[in-house]
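Protein modeling request. Please complete all fields; requests missing the sequence field cannot be processed.
Requester role: graduate student
Desired output: 3D structure, token encoding
Chains: 1
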Amino acid sequence: MFNKILIANRGEIALRIVRTCKEMDIETVVVHSTADANGMAVRMADESVCIGPPMARQSYLNIHAILTAATVTDADAIHPGIGFLSENEEFSRMVEDHGFTFIGPAPEHIATMGDKAIAKETMKALGIPTIPGSIGIVKDAEEGLKISRECGFPVLIKAVAGGGGKGLKVSYNEEDFKDAFTMASTEAKAAFGNGDVYIEKYLSHPRHIEIQVIGDTHGNAVHLGERDCSIQRSHQKVIEECPSPGLTPEQRKYAGKLATECVRKINYRGVGTIEFLFEDGEFYFMEMNTRLQVEHPVTEMVTGVDLVREQIMVAAGNKLSFKQEDVNFTGHAFECRINAEHPETFIPSPGKIIRYHAPGGAGVRVDSAIYDGYTVPPNYDSLVAKLIVHARTREEALMRMERALWECVIDGIQTNIPLQLRILQEPKFRAGEFDIHWLENKMLRKKEKPKIIND
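Delivered output (455 residues):
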């Protein structure tokens, strides 16, 4: 087992990893930018190293600075967390080349699944259903228009290196296709340094279903059920839940088996998610994330499995601590992403938190690195907390989440808690009748304020 792990990330996920390491009696090093010098993860770690100024490119994306920090602190392994370098093939390869263990998949798996066009081809070759569209990269708008006519409009134009909705455009007809193609490619080039795009048929009412998977280096692979991530705004997840209210037991079993076969066939190491669009009873492979997901706590709440612990154990060469038949799914869990942003305009709201009270009680978990007096920097993602609840049934979990949101106090900045409350009070959401377009097309057109409870 490792003696010391360097955590190459920030905020709540860095703190999340520190906590598990402490429970495993593993020393931790947290690297940080000057903007995060007072971060909770920095305070909780055994050691910390400043690796640069606030700009991510000069700190959290600075591979050489991170490797130097690992060297001078005598770390055994590097955990990349979520985002930043967590799905960077070059970084994972350099970590291993410098004698450290990368707590994540092999570089070739990051490369294969990181290129969404190649990932789609790979899964199609394995017999996994995929969304109709181009085979590989589309070289120009003329080729793209031809493929789109064959698929039938509307279509999605997607960056091969994309994520978070960047480099993704919808074309509804031939007239707007060339402009959409150019915008997607330009945006992808600016965001990822790669302007290559591919094309998929645009599904009209799909759910976003992802399956949590994990594999070890001994040929073992399991799934830990699905998460429904259909509540999205600008292709960013807002609320996730487990299990999905839109699947039957048979569909759930089929998707889990499909995802596990993916992991086993490619000899995947570590945690990951196989992501599907689900429409009219059919699953279509969308992408694979070769890292821990922001929403992993909902799976942990329902299964009782510490995914970070399993990540570390597998990276150290151990077999998975459980088999598929050992996984028990209990109750229902939700996660609300609490962002520092205006709840209607979604303009980021960095600044100093003057009062903070985390909700509590049975079945309530808060993953956050904020505290009274903490200043949310303007340099990074606006996520400041993840509020997770667990209960026996979906209805009980909904009531618990609503209560926990009302109990949560974050003063000094604006947050999207009012939006979360509006969503929870919508009849369609409560009934589980939604798809990935529901929030933007139906819900965000309304301006009702959430009702006041016990006023």
